[in-house]
Each structure stands twice: as structure tokens, then as C-alpha cells.
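Marked as duplicate of an earlier ticket. Keeping the data here for the record.
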Amino acid sequence: MHFNGLIISCCLLVSLTNAIDAKGPEDDEWVDGLLRKKRAVDQDEALAKDFLSSHNLKASDMCYQTNIAEWRYASDITTENERLKLEQSLVSARFEKEAWKNITSFNWEPFTDPDLKRKFRLISVLGPSALPEEKLTQYRKSIDAMETIYSTAKICSYTNPADCGLNLDPDITETMRSSRNFEELKHVWHQWHQQSGGKMRNHYERFVELSNEAARMNNFSDTGAYWLRNYESDTFKKDIEGLWQTIKPFYLQLHAYVRAKLRAHYGEDKVPKNQPIPAHLLGNMWAQAWANINELVTPYPGKVSVDVTPEMQKQGYTPKKMFQMSEDFFTSLGLLPTPPEFWSGSIIEKPADREIVCHASAWDFCNGKDFRIKQCTKVTMEDFIVVHHEMGHIQYYLQYKHLPLVYRDGANSGFHEAVGDALALSVQTTKHLKEIGLLDKSSPQDYEATINYLLLTALDKIAFFPFAYIMDKWRWDVFDGSISSADYNCHWWKLREEYQGIRSPVTRSEVDFDPGAKYHIAANVEYIRYFVSFVIQFQFYKSMCVTAGQYDPNNPALPLHECDFYRSKEAGAKLGAVLAMGSSRPWPEAMRSLTGQDRMDASAFREYFKPLEDWLIAKNKELGEPVGWSSEDLNCQKNAPESTTQDPPTTQRPSSSGQLLPHIWILAFVYSLLRFVF
């Protein structure tokens, strides 16, 4: 990068010299103008580098303080911690706003150093802190109110109505996972949606107003456009739609097969042919992952299951052992171990003495040594995979901790989500599970066992795509005004039926707010990153498998879905080099260095699942199961809400990055004088 900048500078000097030689004495004023311009750019770049050096230290410290306040609230939900979090968020916002004034005082567009230009481009967007403090407080309070509603929501038991203290984790999640009682599942589904999303609609409407105002203050048309800046692409939405169209035929086959199996279990009156699947029957509150109903849909029930939950429990696995096993996989590739602060600071089991935000998350405290995970871990194979996902974030943090704060992020948001999942694809193979003693090494891996394994994987991976898409497709429509608040809920169900083939088990209306029953809506977390992740993790996986010598497209004995690159230092080195880039280079460059491609491509995904896709097509024909569904009768009323029960907004979350050094104004003033003098 510096070499390129030197070439540009040399070229500028050569141009100046040639221009001076070509001019006569009468053109001295013109020559002086060129020299002043050149000196101005050089001086501006020197000042900018000094500013960023100091800014990085101050911004890192502010990031640490803000994340500590966030952590205290997320790990102990109290009114006092909520107040302190808001207080710190406002301190951080003032800091960011002052820093932004300094950042935008630089005319960085003419800079000749491409790395310096990239840094300024990334930090010149202020974000929500652009709002006046009164509105920023309202903005943060609206999100905190929704997150608190979500994290503390409780419902009443179906079998014991007097017990009204059931939490999402573990109580509700376990019922959705294991119950096969149609009415109990409907009760739990309905109660959760009422007690979570149903109480936050007013908060969300106010949030949208303020979030869009902040986006416009940052020169974006709306919040959706502001979110997508991270992907550095003018065609991103079209690219996502194209990827979905590539994946959709496979999803339709999986949907048809699962619907047929559910009909066989629950009856045609509950799961009709050619109709969307009732949303409460898929083993997950949001119908985003279907692996929990595997025993209802397994193609060949007599084969050994690759769900090793019973074996993990039999062997006495604990949450700590699950994290230790995950770290062992990362370090076996030559990647970095976690520091002591990780083990002393993380929360990996749900505390019995307080409410916490149980949604699994990884944390970077911006000081290069403090990294943590917060997860209410259960001893299941599902959570074993989640552990690897979160540890992937930690590995990314470790790899780019040496970079300036502005670059301490993924190449794009999807990269950050994909790292752990790419490794988890290796971890969940029968080959690896046998290696670590969770599967009997004598268990055969024949064609039927392979189809069972691929279907179990597809129930999580393929089933997820349309849900991940509509989570942000709905919000893009909300933010850009394509739909009004009067249509929030019915538009949500329109998309769920159209893309997912899922229908609410009870009639919904615009009094309800079902999007808010999902954490990422309540907490304002952009979600298309997960769609991107589920595409590119297979690109990462395929590349690492080839590097490790565990996959050869021309060798049937080395299929992609059986690749385990455990202990491959070569594969680890390839991945580590990309992680160490952080966001210092555009994501297509990072992608190219790992995979040889510079775009998102679903072909590796389709290649991985090819045996299953062929099997599903043949099986659906055999069953006479129609592929697709009719969505003519939307199970949502269009009436506008007449009344709500929400309280006014009460709290919100902080942010991080951005800092001002008092002496920068002096530097800026001196710089202005120099420009005037020269």
C-alpha cells in the first residue's frame, strides 16, 4: 500500500517538473499554484496521520468504557445498569460527534495514500450519534426498551397455567424443540409473540423515525442504505436476490419433503397439501432452523444418528468442555489460543441469581487482550455448533487486534459470521465426530447414512436462507417507506408466506408486532450478514478442504461433505492471513485471497448438498408431494391498531468508536495558516 502511494507521489513530482520546464518565466504564478497545492496535500496527509494515531488511542479507550457498560447490562439486567449504560452511551456519542467534526475538517478525497483515504472513508460516517442529544437519548431508550422487553419476557405454561415464569431460554426453547403436541406448541408460540413483540410496537415505530433521521444526517437515504455501506457494492440487493434464486429450487424441494413428513405425523387437517407449513411445528420459535424435528423427517431411521447430544451428555460434557474442544480445533490449525481474560471474563452458563441477555454473543473490548463470550450454553450438539460460531468471532478479534481500531472488523459483516461456521462444517462431519470420540468409529458411512447426515445439515443451513433474507427485506421496506406502520405485521407475514412457505398458527392483525419476537429486530441488529455468511462459509470451507487435501472434485472418495481439515496447518494459515486483514481491504480482495473468487457464489453450497438435492427430487415425486405452496389467503387482518398497551420508551444502547483530541484544533488551525501562507 505504501509502495503504491510512493509511486503516485513520484508521478505527481514528475508531472510538476515537466510542467515547470514547459512554462516560461511569465508563468511563475501558475507554477507557484501547483506547488502550493502539492504542499497542501502533503501537509494535510501528515496532519491526518498524526490525528489518526492519537485518535486511535482515545477511540480504543472510549470503546472499552462503552463495551464495559454494555456488558454489565447484558450480563445483569437491572434498572441501575440500564441507566449507567445509557449514561455511557451519551458520553460516547458526544465523543464521536466531536471526533467527527475533526475528521470531516480534513479534505481527504485528494489524499494520495490509499490506506489513509480508506481509513477516512470508513470513519467519516458518524452514525446515530449525528442526532441531537435529546433525540439520541430517545433513540437509545427505544432500543433498550425493546431489548429489555425481549430479554425479560415470560409466558405461562400450557400444562400448568398457574406457572407464568417460563423464559425463552431454556424453558420455551426446550418446549419448541421437544414437544410434538400441536396445541401446546401453538400455545407457546402465541404466548411468546404476545409477550415479546406484542409489547414493543410503539417503541419500534419511534425507533424507525429516529433511525431514518440519523441516516439522512449521514447522507444516506434511509437506515437500510446506511446498513449496506459495509458491503461496498451498488448492486448488493440484486446480488442477494440472485443468490436466493440460485438456492430457492433446493429450498422448495426440502420444504415439500418436510411438509409431507409433518402431515404424516399431525394429519392433513393440520398440515394441508399445497399450503404453507404452520410456523410452530418446525422445532424453533422462528422456524429459522428445523433440525430439532429431525426424528420426524429422517429418511432412514435405522441408521446411526449424527446428533451426538445423547453421547455428549453420557460422556459428561459441560459447557466449559465444549468451549475447550472448540479452542482445540482452532489451535490445531495453528490459529491463536484465547488469552486468560477470555476464560476469567466470559459467561458460558446462565446464572441462577439474575436476568441476563441469553442470546449468544462475542465481545471485543478494544484493548487487544479482553475478549469474551456470553452464552447460556446447554449440552447439546446444536449449542456445540453455536460455540464454534462464537469462537470464530473471538478468533477474528485475536487475528486483527494489531490493527488500528478503524480496521478491527470483518472484511464485511458476513465474513465475521462465516468463520466459526466454516470450521463447524468440519467439526460436525462423521469423520471428525469419530475422531473426538462422539461417534463409534465402527459406524458405517454408507449412502443412507450420508443422506441422513446431509438432511440434518440442510434442516439448519437451507431452511435458514429465506428467513435470513426476509428479516432485512422487511426492514428495508420499512426504512425506505415502501410500507407504512399500519402494515408492519401483515407485510411481515406476507414475506414469510411468500419466501419461507410458513404460516402463523393463529390469525394475526396489525395490533400484533410479530417481527419483534426475534431478538435482532428488538436489538436493532442487521441480519443480512447471516444470509451472506451461509453462502460464503461454504466457499471458505471448500477452499480450506482443497488446501488440506481433504477434497478433490474428481475423486469420489473425497466428497466435500465429508471433509475434515482438523490439524491442517496449511488450511489454518490460509484462513489466518485473511482474518488478520480485518477490514483494511475491500472484501472481494479478502475473498480472493482465501478462495480465488472475488464474489459471493452459491455453487459450493449446491455442490456440498448435491446428493441430497437429487434424493429429495426423486423422493417428492415418489410421494406425489406438490412442490411449492399457495399463499392466497394471508392469515393476517389488515386493520390498523386501535390501541396498544406499551409504556413510553425507557432505555437504549451505547455505541463505540470515534474520539477527539483537544490539540487537533491547534493542528487544524496551523494547517489552515500554512495553506494561506503557501
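See parent ticket for discussion. The chain has 26 helices and four strands.
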